[in-house]
Amino acid sequence: MSVVTNTTTIGAIELPSRRNTELMLLGFAVVIPIFAYANVGLAIHGKLPPGMLVYGLGLALLAGVAHLVVRRFAKYADPLLLPLGILLNGLGLVLIWRLDQSERLQNLAKRAFGGFSESTPNQMLYTALGIALFSAVLLILKDHRTLQRFTYISMAGALVLLILPVIPGLGADVFGAKIWIRVAGFSIQPGEFAKIVIAVFFSGYLMVKRDALALASRRFMGLYLPRGRDLGPILVIWAMSLLILVFENDLGTSLLFFGMFVIMLYVATERTSWIVIGLLMSVAGAVVVGTTASHVKARVTAWLDPFACYSTSGACEQVGQSIMSFGSGGVLGAGWGQGNSDLIGFAANSDFIFSTVGEELGLTGVMAFLLLYGLIIERGARTALAARDPFGKLFAIGLSGAFAIQIFVVAGGVMGLIPLTGMTMPFLASGGSSVLANWALIGILIRISDTARRPAPAPAQSPDSEMTQVVRPS
């Protein structure tokens, strides 16, 4: 006797897209900056700021447009990345507006330039352009793997972007660093975009060469040393970083590129020796350039003892004032609009905007902001783990690593942990290049996460599989 059992095939289970979760988080990401904006107005002027409604509606409109684009073109993307970007960008607008209200900064601008113009309207425009670029990335980049075709083209593009600031007549020297170009009256920082372009090259190159780079020829002091010919790529990147330091006096971009390459190299090869070699080479390069390049040497001197040259060096004065801002903030801070970080001068709303956070929101506010940044980095790393292709894994971890390094060098510089780098805090600082580049970075991570989280298509059904007879012995 036998038993006949009828079984039918079951299709793939539809996974939740988490877009409603993203929409709810976006509500908080818009409301929190509006409350902060109102708090600043009450603290400085004793009344609600007149542009509060326009600011709130504008931020909500930008968040809504970005959400609709993600809902339509990246249905399964990570639900945290967009709200985190909107929240940081919104709070950055509040911090910049708070510094625009400083009479000291207004008088300083009038003495130096003959007039004063607020940075907040421009920053709001840059934010709108950043959301537009974010949307364009999701609309145009249907699959991140298409970027792999442009591996060596991206290397050439990154080199061009890095060379532009040192071209006479095009580059601009701003406070000793040659990292800007001026085009049609606008200032652009090409290094902000170069970090994304060069991440494409690193990802494509390491995906092909990772097996060769993972080979070790000998063991020395517990480390597996790579073969001599495999040291070529890291030597080239090291030399390029030194050239950036020498010609552009830009410590931050050099650390960013070299650090990003070492992180991706370690992820691709799983060799601890690359980390050790990379750290030794970065220290050696920093020591050599720090003792020879005058601009970098001044920043190293200010880092070692900012109060020793407080009255003779502008770098020491800025670092000293920044350290005092963090110290006077205490645990809970002086409150929105109640600090004196505007004494730092023109860099208060760009390089040193994190000092305003430390003074007016205290250690609590600093940790909250670092936690928000940490969540973006964690979601990027989670996206890299979930990616199904090696190029996507390396690309996501490279972008996340670059973002993490930039946070470290900026926060470490204004806190006195490392020398100043001249880079800007992502989403917070005033400047269009940083906002545009970081929104493009968030857009790429969302595209990779959508591909990684999207359920695999169900296998095609065969007409014969609709009913299968299974005969079991009785």
TrEMBL record:
UniProt region (Disordered), positions on chain: 455-474
Entry-linked InterPro entries: FtsW/RodA (IPR001182)
Coiled-coil parts of chain: none
Localization: Membrane
Transmembrane segments: 23-46, 52-69, 81-99, 123-141, 153-172, 192-208, 228-245, 251-268, 275-296, 352-373, 394-418, 424-446
Sorted UniProt keywords: Cell shape, Membrane, Transmembrane, Transmembrane helix
Origin: domain of life: Bacteria
Membrane-related topology note: Multi-pass membrane protein
Name by which UniProt lists this protein: FtsW/RodA/SpoVE family cell cycle protein
